[in-house]
Specification:
The protein has two domains: 160 residues, Rossmann fold, CATH 3.40.50; 117 residues, no CATH class. The chain is built from 13 helices and seven strands. The chain has a seven-stranded mixed sheet with strand order 3-2-1-4-5-6-7. A hairpin with a 7-residue loop joins strand 5 and strand 6. The longest helix has 17 residues. The radius of gyration is 19 Å and the shape is globular.
Length: 304
């Protein structure tokens, strides 16, 4: 499945390509109580490692990576190809972290046409070497942490790092080998692109499980309005037990990400304006707490 984006509004903020490649939202295992409620449909997510981690932890039937950053989409395409080409987790670690430029093109047997093109292209290795392997200090050493085996609950990717977890790796590898990982560049601020995504999901009969759009609601002054608008649109295509999940920084010292989500069964009954207010209230509630949380259909929010 392929897509394209419309021309950018010159007044819209645009990310620096690759700015958010490192997995900066640490401790995703905090969201395990939310992942446990998944219907195991397709995991639709922005970001890079965030999307792969979420698909594995929620045991999704597929992964659909969406992002307005072309580098994030390229990351997803290369990582999918590496997962599909790998024989086991140790082999994947070698391909990901140390294999030479000459090695990748030797691993094309059994891959899809798109994955073959990805690994055969020397630019893919160059991109990966610079943006992943040698980019370990950005965002509080995010890739550095991700490329190090977590051993205690204090480690940023404890219980969520598929590089060092056979069960999580095997799950993602199976998705990749069965062509159940897709990547599409789109901008959630553009209604026609969101509508196109929904049509692709519908035509391909991909039942939605979790829709994870990171911190979009609190990323800009109009974030809650933007989120409410695209969630309302996607809601019409989603089953009642689909989950719309986001993150927001908790209060206290340092940056600790909380996860909050609403099921479609409660979203269906409110308009975009009300949903926007829910986002505003939830973000404020999370900011007032001094600890990270996982909130699903927070009664304090949806009863107002």
């Amino acid at each position: 499945m392929r897509g394209h984006t419309q021309a950018h509004d010159p007044n819209e903020w645009q990310p620096t390509p690759g700015m958010y490649l490192p997995p900066n939202e640490q401790h995703p295992a905090i969201a395990l109580p939310i992942y446990a409620k998944s219907n195991h449909g397709v995991y639709v997510s922005v970001g890079t490692e965030r999307s792969f981690i979420g698909a594995a932890l929620s045991r999704a039937s597929g992964l659909f990576v969406i992002d307005y950053d072309p580098y994030a989409i390229r990351f997803a395409q290369i990582n999918r190809a590496l997962l599909a080409a790998s024989k086991n987790r140790a082999d994947y670690l070698n391909l990901r972290l140390t294999a030479s430029r000459e090695t990748w093109p030797t691993r094309l047997k059994g891959l899809s046409e798109e994955d073959r093109k990805t690994l055969a292209n020397p630019d893919s290795w160059t991109f990966w070497d610079a943006k992943v392997r040698k980019n370990e200090t950005a965002w509080d050493s995010a890739f550095g942490h991700f490329h190090t085996q977590p051993k205690t609950a204090a480690d940023p990717f404890f219980a969520s790092d598929y590089l060092f977890d056979d069960r999580l790796f095997t799950y993602l590898s199976r998705l990749a080998k069965s062509s159940r990982i897709w990547a599409l560049q789109l901008d959630l601020r553009h209604e026609n692109e969101v509508r196109s995504l929904c049509e692709k999901l519908k035509v391909n009969q991909l039942a939605l499980g979790i829709i994870d759009t990171s911190d979009v609601p609190n990323s800009t002054e109009t974030g809650t309005t933007t989120a409410a608008r695209y969630v309302a649109m996607i809601s019409a295509y989603a089953p009642d037990d689909a989950i719309f999940m986001n993150t927001a920084p908790s209060g206290g010292h340092g940056v600790r990400w909380s996860y909050y989500a609403f099921t479609n069964r409660v979203i269906r009954h409110v308009d975009a304006a009300t949903l926007g207010k829910w986002y505003e209230s939830e973000i404020k509630e999370i900011a007032a707490a001094d600890h990270a949380q996982a909130l699903l259909d927070d009664p304090a929010i949806i009863r107002h």
